[in-house]
Design a protein that fits this description.
The chain is of the alpha/beta class and 307 residues long. It has 3 domains: 7-98 and 198-218, D-Maltodextrin-Binding Protein, domain 2 (3-Layer(aba) Sandwich), CATH 3.40.190.10; 105-185, D-Maltodextrin-Binding Protein, domain 2, CATH 3.40.190; 236-306, Double Stranded RNA Binding Domain (2-Layer Sandwich). Helices cover 36% and strands 23% of the residues. The protein contains 9 helices and 13 strands. The longest helix has 28 residues, at 279-306. It is globular and about 60 Å long.
Length: 307
Amino acid sequence: MTPLRPVTLGTRGSKLALVQSETCAEKLRAAGLDVELRVIRTTSEHHPETPLSVIDQRDVFTRQLDEALLAGEIDLAVHSLKDVPTEPPEDVAIAAVTERHDPSDVLVSEERHGVYGLPQGAVVATSSLRRRAQLLHHRPDLQIIDIRGNVDTRVRKMREGAADALVLARAGFARLGLDAPHTVLPPEVMLPAVGQGALAAAAREDHPLRDRIREVLNHGPTEKATRAERAMLRALEGGCRVPVGGLAVAGENGVRLRGVVASPDGILMYEGEVEGKVPEEVGERLAGWLLERGAAVVLGEVREARA
């Protein structure tokens, strides 16, 4: 049944967040729901120049939207799934996971360099410990600098001389229709963030439209794959602040998951791949395998350094 009042969809105010939220809103409208967007500023926007690796909270992109959900100010919130903590607040649920765009990262540079084509000592911009660690593993000569801001702002900073290259998520790059020259980084060079390329629609556990939102927006194979990835991350106790990458593929016979944990300097890297029927079991099994082989030491050192 269509509600008497419009459904309020909460979103961050960046151009990318608005594009992503409007994509979901259009699907809900096509299904007969009257949807309006409401912009809510999050912690990341209150601290636009602070590197994500040093902001001491995992819900840096989601906290204020979760609070608005719980207060009944909005009916649902749309996030990049990679930004959603693996332990959502009590009474908040991921109602749906959208069909995933390409989860790869891209290396943006005017010369369209790949990682191995960058000049010796090139300056590469990223605020992600995951990207930093994997770049340095393949190219320890690179100078990695922090960069914050919306996607188009980061591209502009690079073009103004702040860096020789920039690493971005391909999905966001494509959703914004950016035309900057770039090279797609294969998973052998750069495993993406857990959940990268997919969107999450969050709602209160008891919201009357939760099932309807799921019916319209959820994509089963993407949800299955990202459940495995998020189970791995949860078992590793990771987030934006630790160098963990993961990518799963879901098929009729189960899930295949590949994961990596790397030291921030790129010297140590632990990689593994497992398959199985149950996504959460696959993720937990791969996390255990990585921890046993040395990843626990790397993650412990990262947390100790932060403390």
